[in-house]
Amino acid sequence: MLCIVSSMANCKKLRLKDAALKRLLSVVVVTLLGVLLLIVSLRTNTTPGLSELDEDLSEIADIQSFSEQLNLPKQNEFSIRLAKQNQMPPRNRDLYPKLAKDHITIVLYVHNRPQYLQVVVKSLSKVVGISETLLIVSHDGYFEEMNKIVEGIKFCQVKQIFAPYSPHVFPDSFPGVSSNDCKEKDDAGKKHCVGSPDQYGNHRSPRIVSLKHHWWWMMNTVWDGLKETRGHNGHILFIEEDHFIYPNAYRNIQLLVSLKPLKCPDCYAANLAPCDVNLRGEGWDSLIAERMGNVGYAFNRTVWRKIHRKAKEFCFFDDYNWDITMWATVYPSFGSPVYTLRGPRTSAVHFGKCGLHQGQGQTNACIDNGSVNMQVDDIDKVANIRSEWGVHVYDNQPGYKAGFKGWGGWGDDRDRQLCLNFAQMYHSYNTSLSAVTMS
């Protein structure tokens, strides 16, 4: 042994040095493991701001190549980062590790009205059963204040997706504003500008067309693009940032979905609210079958397939509103009345006094007194739909129907082609839709 030929003092020093080195190595290993675990945790449970998004060059190249193959607009770095962010897993899985077997996924689509979003998020936090499901928040572009509100959600699993082709993401090129775009009622031949006008002679407004683009991109992405939902065959509930959701909404939509095959087998969907947003329900002891509403509507993949097959009708109808487009051209093309099933008392309410993308950055601009005072009675806190009720059918309801020509705002060939491209994003290039041309 070394200690036989060395003094006892030197041997002791060697032992101390050896022990110190072992302790140092242990500290280094533990520290490295801790850093790695922290990185994994952050990537799994948080949605970073734009400046923190991963910038792996190989993945960016893959995304750019994918968009070019589909003839989508050339993405800028911002758009590519958002597309990558959409692949992140849901947050709060540590708090809610399993979704209920019969859960109905909720999709909340938002623009840039943070005052509104705060109201709907607060109302969702009080919904009975909300912790059992997945909440997907679809953003029309990226706005930091909106992002922070969603990052604060802790009452269920939540996944954020950002429309990477939103006009708000392209400040100087299509789908945003290009320097050589025609404006208002410009004559393209005389002005030597780019764009085709709508039926009223008006050229596109990126702020307005983004409404329809976002809804269509979101539908295609949720049903066919996200790994969390592309295999989901049940119903998905869709709500917007200006919908106040009552505590009984989730339990009621579950009941409506389960009763629909028995009570209204011809109904395409279930709704939380009347199609007339100014009504609160009849208060009868009866279920209601009426035309599809745009507040709290839920349908399944079979219905989505029917909608998707009407992509050309949706994308070529000259109206910037997705819902009016559906009422006036898509639903009528199904060949039979499109009914939805709802209860006699609303479980969701449209609120606020701003439309489109108004109100952002203005104190108390969209909500009276900066808040919404919605009356919630005891009957609104528990499921209030009964399986023994019959169904009252509303025939010949007023509203947009086949033959309505549209409000315009959707006449530019570029918007129509982008819309068609969204319908192809997650499908084979050999589908019949890929053969659709602009002629």
Would you write up a description of this structure?
Strands 3-2-1-4-8-6-9-7-11 form a nine-stranded mixed β-sheet, sandwiched between helices. The chain has a two-stranded antiparallel ribbon with strand order 5-10. The chain has twelve helices and eleven strands. Helices cover 35% and strands 11% of the residues. α4 links the parallel β1 and β2. α4 runs parallel beside α5.
Reading the helices and strands in chain order gives HHHEHEHEHHEEHEEEHHHEEEH
**Biggest beta sheet summary:** 9 strands, mixed
Residue share in helix:
25-40%
Q: Spans of 5+ residues with little confidence (pLDDT < 50)?
A: 1-14, 37-64, 355-365, 429-439
Structural class: alpha/beta
Computed over alpha carbons, the radius of gyration is 27 Å
Name the average pLDDT: 84
What global shape is seen? globular
β-strand number: 11
Walk across the major sheet and give the strand order.
3-2-1-4-8-6-9-7-11
Helices and strands in order:
Layout: H1 8-45, H2 57-69, H3 77-85, E1 105-110, H4 114-125, E2 134-139, H5 144-151, E3 157-162, H6 188-191, H7 206-224, E4 236-240, E5 243-245, H8 249-263, E6 267-271, E7 287-291, E8 297-299, H9 301-308, H10 311-316, H11 322-330, E9 339-342, E10 348-350, E11 391-393, H12 413-424
Parallel strand pairs: 1-2, 1-4, 2-3, 6-9, 7-11
Antiparallel strand pairs: 4-8, 5-10, 6-8, 7-9
Helix pairs in contact: 2-3, 4-5, 7-12
